[in-house]
Specification:
The complex is a heterodimer of chains A (about 210) and B (about 10). With about 210 residues, chain A is mainly α. Chain A is about 70% helix and about 0% strand. The chains are: A mainly alpha (about 210), B little secondary structure (about 10).
Chain lengths: ~210, ~10
């Protein structure tokens, strides 16, 4: 565990906490894409199947369980408790266009052709694009609440910090996983436009509003 | 890089 990875994990955790707090405090999930949240739940459940087969550390197990459980709680809040506030009309991204290619790619390009490894690879590919429905929703409504922007910034930073972690591990431990690195690059690049708007607008106290 | 597929990251 190096500092980049720890900061990445913490950033990921902070993102989830911000999202849950936003929904809970405002009693509303307006502006949040339920489709992205479903994709994240699929990502965690398929990636962390190794909870049953491999033990890495208490930290590792704890975080995996937190990610799986909070993603399920989020889906419950959006589709049951605060369903009335959910932005159905704007959340129209077709997630099968992300799930199916990720699955096909995972079947073709993986480290090992076993069920658990293909599902791990699928989750890595799917995670890299899982934010697209959310970004699509923001672009459709043309704006995002500050709290949603903070959530997106923390969530986007997490894989960016992982990239630094992989550079570090390459030099310090001679360890690298090309699948994770390429997917992590794609994932971070997808956030670049948002990062720019976040730094130039939200951090200066303005609302995140897209140019008309 | 060893070809073990244990993933120690999240």
């Amino acid at each position: 565990m190096n500092i980049f990875r720890l900061l990445g994990d913490l950033s990921h955790l902070v993102a989830i906490i911000i999202l849950l707090l936003k929904i809970w405090k405002t009693r509303s999930c307006a502006g949040i894409s339920g489709k992205s949240q479903i994709l994240f739940a699929i990502v965690y459940t398929t990636r962390y199947l190794d909870l049953f087969t491999t033990y890495v550390s208490t930290y590792n197990t704890f975080m995996k369980l937190v990610f799986i459980m909070t993603s399920i709680v989020t889906i419950f809040l959006m589709n049951a408790k605060f369903k009335a506030t959910y932005d159905h009309n704007h959340d129209t991204f077709r997630i099968e266009f992300l799930i199916l290619p990720a699955l096909v790619l995972a079947l073709l390009i993986n480290n090992e052709f076993t069920i658990i490894e293909v599902l791990w690879t699928f989750s890595i590919y799917l995670e890299s694009v899982a934010i697209l429905p959310q970004l699509f929703l923001v672009s459709k409504t043309g704006e995002a609440e500050s709290i949603t922007s903070h959530y997106l910034f923390a969530l986007g930073s997490y894989r960016g910090l992982y990239l630094l972690n992989w550079v570090y591990r390459y030099y310090a431990e001679d360890h690298y996983d090309l699948i994770a690195i390429v997917a992590g690059l794609v994932q971070t690049i997808l956030y670049c436009d948002f990062f720019y708007l976040y730094i130039t607008k939200v951090l200066k106290g303005k609302k995140l509003q897209l140019p008309a | 890089q060893t070809l073990e597929t244990t993933h120690d990251e999240l």
